[in-house]
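Hi! If you just cloned this repository, the fastest way to understand the data is to look at a raw example. We've pasted two of them here, unedited. The first protein comes first, obviously.
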Amino acid sequence: MTRQNRHLTRLALSLLFGCAPLTLSAYAQELKDATPAHSSADAAAATKAMAEHQGIWKWVVPPVKMNGAFDDHDPIGLVAGKLIPADCAFNWTDPDTHKLYCFTSATSLVFFLDSPQTYIPEAEKNWRALKGKLAKPR
């Protein structure tokens, strides 16, 4: 049985018998001792890169505000009755009205593109209602 398999077996047994915190800390220490010193620097560099990019799915976040419809709120969120701000990294321009619509994710954009002429009127109706709630003093 390899060293790693022994540790995993020990971990599984300790989880069954409720001794997980002790075993997990011992397992983590053994892994730390077994890893080379340069891997922590690599991990720190990867963490920094991820923090700078704020996610792996967005290629480009616009450097300037794009002034989309609904004050840059996601139309699919509006259809659902929620105000979800978008940064216009994902956007679509209506070929008929030339309005720019901003989306929070590619999934939202693809979902919207299935039937934009159905979603736009519903989003506009909900936008008027939600915008009215925002304007009311509390």
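Ok, and the second one:
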Amino acid sequence: MRDSRPRYDSAAILLHWVIGLGIGVLIVLGLAMVHLPMPIGQKFWLYQLHKSIGITVLLAVLLRVLWRLLHRPPALPEAMPAAEKTAAQASHFLLYALMLAMPLTGWAMVTVSPFNIPTVLYGVIPWPDMPVLSTLADKTTADAVATFLHHKLGYIFMALIGLHAAAALRHHFFLRDGVLRRILPFGG
């Protein structure tokens, strides 16, 4: 039997899962780069891959934001309490903010890094430094701020993603209100 409740459109569903997968890979790479001992060559390769995927996710998020501005999402269930609707809207706003802030702070970090290693997406496409930050005479403070923000926001982002996933699972398994099925890629 087909669910008659409104779903997200195919583009929104595709972007949601592509971005989600990309963010998952970025989290694993980021934690590995920072916390696991490894040869410098392997670490360099992971950093380059992390930067490439990060820029790809940034571009997908920009596309998703544009799509979201032009296409209304399906309404939340009428029976959902107003406080839960407000929490859902606030958490989605924070997710979008962090989906933009994380790659931008990472890009800033690369731009002001004392190592001055260029970003070449997937080893093929040269990516420029951030225009304003690249012209700073002394990048030391900017490097410390960008690094601090990227790392701390990363942990906040992971917590928010966990909350987002837990809420989706609550809706699916306990409330059984169809909220998760609206974004599932295969049939809902």
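That's it. A detail worth noticing about the second one: The radius of gyration is 19 Å.
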